[in-house]
Design goal:
The structure holds two protein chains of two kinds. Chain A is α/β, with parallel strands linked by helices. Chain A is built from five helices and five strands; from the N terminus they run βαβαβαβαβα. The model of chain A has no long low-confidence stretch (mean pLDDT about 95). The N terminus of chain B is likely disordered. Classes of the chains: A alpha/beta, B alpha/beta.
Chain lengths: ~140, ~550
């Protein structure tokens, strides 16, 4: 829960790409909401452009993407680039799905936050988003 | 326990009383004794668990005889083992063609095509929305030219081919048929299966293009066309697999899938097709999850319910119309990224439940599928798992070896009751399509998956390596994974551009106009699709031609 006087964490959650496997994203979205965050679920078949635009419009603290389509090495870097171009480097990009660990490491090097694999505990995901957003808020001038 | 209550022993009281007294006094483990789906399980099942009306004649019948609870075939695996059919496809049509030739050379006699996401969603490989997805989760097939490459040198007249494709199933099937015809193989002789189960896409997997009604119409078009021209083909594989993967319970998988099947039957009857002409070609596809007896009960209940409903509600007369034949795949969602080798064991046990439940064909998942598409080594272990079950364990020697087990019969009855309760609720909503439009299935499944996730978090349910018996994560990659590079997409797009430049543009336009006319008039679109495919129209062009009439579907995003 947000401390008194602290703005509630706002996170946009989306599936990017053509894949429709939404079990994970819906469960995580619900857990984030139950964890006290404002969750905007953008739904299926979002493009990086659509997500970056929505993050800007909503002034979200974080964006969570769910990927099971093996396109993560194309679409996540593109999302990071689009956010950067829009001056939103402070926005946490996190997510999860079917992701080889070496790809997770490569994406983190590009500035992506934590990416969770199948079996990750919901509480861990919620705690991570909360702590990381708070850390980033604290670091902003 | 009337039947067991006859032995008065030295210590006074009957056997059942002594046992109950001992259970009362005993300390039980602090554990959840419900099934994976949350059904209560008796500590012991006996004849009284089944109720007074239960008889083997009524509830089971003989193998190959109504209501087929034990088996649809009189000899089951003594006659023929299940088909070991591993699903595969990746990269370009050329890459996958090489993999198929390898599989056929190693004794596999059927193929199972995995298409990539753009193909599944009806986009050409060079569509902007396909960026990054070409060839990643399956093979890219954007036109007849790709289909020709995919099956080049493969004897399509002698093998059976299963194609996992739904929204654009009619189009990909037309490509397969035209390719065979061009190679001089009569389409009437072709054998195979289209998944083509659009209803479960709206319910679970979410790979839809058109709204439910026209999508259902397309399915009926393929069934009708198949009856007339491709009689050995299975035009629909009614699938619970994806419903379960989306987080449903076993009972929901059973109920929603059967309800989908009956919706297709009703749509075909409404078209004027006689039930005994199309029903023998319908087939099913189940998920083999981890709760051993719940799964076995599910398969047995599925056969029994289907037989009764086909006979009693839809008036089927032919035994083949009442026999549920099915494929099974082990549960991808049960696999863990943690300690991935443990997935081999999970898959083996799930596969065993499918065999004990009487499946006609089986796909076993590979241990690395929570991380990526499987490597060749992982696929081979998965196939060997089936061979060990078939040839070492002895379970295939006798039909329905668990039939008559009080507990297994109890689970079978229990799953049937749960499914029939769902049928009543679905009917009350106005049927499957109405239920989809009201978000009924999506909500039921979403709730079940959330509850299961919470049960894991609170450790009421256990996943080894995830919430118990956890090990520190290895620093490097735990196992090797398969990589598909960007080069596939670039080459595929170059080929597609070349095709568009070389083909007869006027012929393509004429064929696409014909397809538009057929769809707007409400005709069966299969003949027009065959013509468009022959002219090398692309997948995306054909999908778009029909969008003009059918429109598109967007689900309301709900958590």
């Amino acid at each position: 829960m947000a401390a008194p006087g602290e703005r509630r964490i706002k996170i946009l959650v989306a599936k990017i790409g053509l894949d429709g496997h939404d079990r994970g994203v819906r469960v995580v979205a619900r857990a984030l909401r139950d964890g006290g965050m404002e969750v905007i679920y953008a739904g299926l078949r979002q493009t990086p452009e659509m997500v970056a635009q929505a993050v800007l419009q909503e002034d979200a603290d974080a964006v969570g993407v769910s990927m099971h389509n093996a396109a993560h090495m194309t679409l996540i870097p593109k999302l990071l680039r689009l956010l950067h171009e829009r001056g939103m480097d402070h926005v946490l990009v996190t997510g999860g799905g079917i992701l080889p660990p070496e790809d997770v490491a490569a994406l983190k090097k590009l500035g992506c936050g934590e990416l969770f694999l199948p079996g990750a505990p919901l509480d861990e995901v919620v705690r991570y988003v909360r702590e990381e957003v708070q850390r980033r808020r604290g670091a902003r001038p | 326990m009337a039947a067991m209550a006859n032995g008065n022993g030295k210590n006074g009281g009957s056997g059942v009383e002594r046992w109950k007294a001992q259970v009362e006094k005993a300390r039980l483990r602090d554990a959840d004794f419900t099934t994976l789906s949350g059904l209560e399980v008796p500590i012991l099942a006996g004849p009284e668990t089944l109720g007074p009306d239960w008889t083997p004649e009524e509830q089971l019948g003989w193998p190959g005889d109504f209501p087929y609870t034990r088996s649809v075939y009189p000899t089951q695996y003594r006659g023929r083992l299940w088909t070991m059919r591993q699903f595969s496809g990746f990269g370009s049509a050329q890459d996958t063609n090489a993999r198929y030739k390898y599989l056929l050379a190693h004794g596999q006699n059927g193929l199972s095509v995995a298409f990539d996401m753009p193909t599944l969603m009806g986009y050409d490989s060079d569509d902007p929305l396909a960026e990054g997805e070409v060839g990643r989760c399956g093979v890219a097939v954007a036109s007849l030219a790709d289909m020709e490459t995919l099956f080049d040198g493969i004897p399509v007249g002698q093998i059976s081919t299963s194609m996992t494709i739904n929204s654009p199933a009619a189009i990909l099937w037309a490509m397969y048929l035209v390719n065979a015809e061009k190679r001089g193989v009569e389409v009437a002789k072709l054998e195979g299966t289209l998944q083509n189960d659009i209803l479960k896409e709206f319910i679970a997997q979410k790979e839809y293009i058109y709204p439910p009604e026209p999508s259902l119409k397309l399915v009926v078009d393929t069934i009708e066309f198949g009856m007339k021209h491709v009689p050995k083909w299975h035009p629909v594989s009614i699938s619970g697999y994806h419903i379960r993967e989306a987080g449903s319970t076993a009972a929901q998988e059973l109920a929603f899938t059967l309800a989908d099947g009956f919706a297709y039957v009703e749509a075909c009857i409404a078209r004027g097709l006689p039930v005994d002409d199309f029903a023998p070609r319908l087939s099913f596809f189940w998920n083999a999850h981890s709760d051993f007896f719940e799964e076995i009960g599910k398969y047995r209940a599925a056969r029994r319910i289907y037989a009764h409903v086909m006979k009693e509600k839809y008036g089927a007369k032919k035994p083949a119309s009442m026999q549920m034949r099915f494929h099974t795949q082990t549960a991808g969602c049960s696999l863990t990224a943690q300690q991935p080798e443990n997935n081999i064991v999970r898959t083996a046990l799930q596969a065993l439940s499918a065999v004990l439940g009487g499946t006609q064909s089986l796909h076993t998942n590979s241990m690395d599928e929570t991380l990526a598409l499987p490597t060749e080594k992982a696929v081979k272990i998965a196939l060997r798992t089936q061979q060990i079950i078939a040839h070492e364990t002895g379970v295939a020697n006798t039909i329905d070896p668990l039939g008559g087990s009080w507990f297994v019969e109890h689970m079978t009855d229990r799953l049937e009751r749960e499914a029939r309760e769902y049928f009543r609720r679905i009917d009350a909503l106005g049927g499957v399509v109405a239920g989809i439009e009201q978000g009924f299935f999506q909500k039921e499944i979403g709730q079940a998956s959330f509850h299961y996730q919470r049960a894991l978090e609170s450790k009421r349910k256990t996943m080894v390596g995830v919430n118990e018996f956890v090990e520190p994560e290895p620093t490097g990659p735990a196992i090797d994974t398969l990589k598909i590079g960007q080069v596939t997409e670039d080459e595929q797009n170059a080929r597609l551009r070349a095709l568009r430049a070389q083909r007869d543009g006027a012929a393509v336009r004429r064929a696409l106009d014909g397809l538009k006319r057929a769809s707007s008039k409400g005709d069966n679109v299969m003949p027009a699709l065959v013509e468009a495919v022959r002219a090398y129209a692309t997948l995306g062009e054909m999908v778009d031609a029909m969008k003009a009439t059918y429109g598109t579907y967007v689900e309301a995003a709900v958590i």
